[in-house]
């Protein structure tokens, strides 16, 4: 009974997985929503979908409330969550400036160690098959490692990794649009995105127990 009560208290305090993304044309958002489906399939865990505002080379983002869609993330989301799954389109093999801008604003949370020991995963979208998906995933993983997070990838026990002819890597879920806009996710891309969300949520649930 004591173990059950302890597990219940842990689950109630640490039940959300932050699914954080930036999307220009909708492909990364589509991946994010599949990741959420994977998170929500894990008992006791729920997804918290958040995005970040667009920034330009001449002005910082204004974090006003979006008129529609997911709300903008705040550093407190990083504190409150039990884990993070983060996604971005590929910009020259790197994460988007908008997502990097948000991460650069989490220094206070880094000083406090707010994310230390929490699981994290990454996902990305590109317009071409060899357009820098894997390097983009790595650029997102680096600041999460600096936060002390535990990076969760996709093992080859996820059979779609061996059969996909579109997106999908062991470092995280990906989508290839083939320069088509909009371009729907392939079945393999959907399954791998859900698997990533499920794996991060399962690790978070085990850590909470």
Which regions contain 5 or more consecutive residues with pLDDT less than 50? 1-14
Using the alpha-carbon principal axes, give the shape.
globular
Average of pLDDT: 89
Structural class: alpha/beta
Number of strands: 6
What is the makeup of the main sheet?
6 strands, parallel
The value of Rg in angstroms is 16 Å
Beta content: 15-25%
The span between the termini is: 14 Å
Helical percentage:
40-55%
Q: How would you summarize this macromolecular structure in one to three sentences?
A:
The protein is an alpha/beta fold. It contains eight helices and six strands; from the N terminus they run αβαβαβααβαβαβα.
List its salient traits.
single chain; 8 helices; 6 strands; alpha/beta; 209 residues; disordered N terminus
Helix and strand arrangement:
Blueprint: H1 2-13, E1 16-21, H2 27-40, E2 46-51, H3 75-80, E3 83-89, H4 97-104, H5 107-112, E4 119-126, H6 133-146, E5 150-151, H7 160-163, E6 173-176, H8 187-208
Parallel strand pairs: 1-2, 1-3, 3-4, 4-5, 4-6
Helix pairs in contact: 2-8
Structure description:
41% of the residues lie in helices and 16% in strands. The protein is built from 8 helices and 6 strands. Strands 1, 2, 3, 4, 5 and 6 form a 6-stranded parallel beta sheet that branches. The protein has helices at residues 2-13, 27-40, 75-80, 97-104, 107-112, 133-146, 160-163, 187-208; strands spanning 16-21, 46-51, 83-89, 119-126, 150-151, 173-176. The two termini are 14 Å apart. α2 crosses α8. The model is unreliable at 1-14 (pLDDT under 50). It has 209 residues and is an alpha/beta fold. It is globular.
């Amino acid at each position: 009974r004591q173990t059950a009560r302890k597990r219940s208290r842990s689950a109630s305090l640490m039940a959300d997985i932050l699914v954080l993304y930036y999307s220009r044309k909708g492909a990364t958002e589509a991946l994010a929503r599949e990741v959420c489906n994977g998170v929500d399939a894990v008992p006791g865990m729920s997804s918290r979908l958040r995005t970040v505002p667009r920034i330009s080379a001449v002005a910082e983002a204004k974090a006003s409330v979006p008129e529609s869609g997911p709300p903008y993330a705040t550093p407190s989301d990083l504190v409150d969550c039990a884990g993070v799954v983060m996604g971005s389109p590929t910009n020259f093999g790197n994460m988007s400036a908008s997502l990097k801008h948000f991460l650069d604003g989490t220094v206070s949370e880094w000083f406090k160690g707010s994310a230390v020991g929490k699981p994290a995963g990454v996902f990305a979208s590109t317009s071409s098959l060899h357009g820098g998906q894997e390097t983009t995933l790595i650029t997102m993983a680096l600041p999460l490692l600096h936060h002390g997070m535990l990076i969760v990838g996709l093992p080859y026990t996820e059979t779609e990794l061996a059969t996909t002819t579109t997106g999908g890597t062991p470092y995280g879920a990906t989508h290839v649009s083939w320069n088509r806009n909009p371009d729907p996710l392939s079945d393999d891309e959907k399954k791998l995105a859900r698997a990533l969300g499920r794996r991060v949520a399962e690790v978070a649930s085990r850590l909470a127990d």
